[in-house]
Amino acid sequence: MKGDRVEIVVDAGGEVRTYDLTATRAGRRIEISTGRGIVEVTEVTRTGTPVRTARFMASRVLALVEHPAHDVVLPGDEDTAAGGRQLRPSA
Questions:
Q1: Is the model's pLDDT at 11 over the cut of 50?
Q2: Is residue 13 a part of any domain in this protein?
Q3: Does the global pTM surpass 0.70?
Q4: Dihedral of the alpha carbons of 75, 77, 78, 84, in degrees to the nearest 10
Q5: Is 90 contained in some domain?
Q6: What is the rounded CA–CA span in Å between residue 83 and residue 58?
Q7: N or C: at which end does the chain have fewer Cβ atoms within 10 angstroms?
Q8: Which domain covers residue 15, as residue numbers?
Q9: Is residue 83 part of a domain?
């Protein structure tokens, strides 16, 4: 998964903690990977170089919400803008 902001809700024993990870500069993105009981959230540059990483135990993660970056809509995409108009790239 890729996006520009991710919220992670973690069970911390008797309480719930929320972490908000945001891509700090333009062109960076957030990637999420899961493996071997670990959820890893990494901010990466355009070239894929990791800038910072957060790791959580998968058994403690209650929710992971991704707020994706707004991408340019290409011809043929079925996405619509607010108000029901179809987005089209400028010529």
A1: yes
A2: yes
A3: no
A4: -50
A5: no
A6: 39
A7: C
A8: 2-67
A9: no
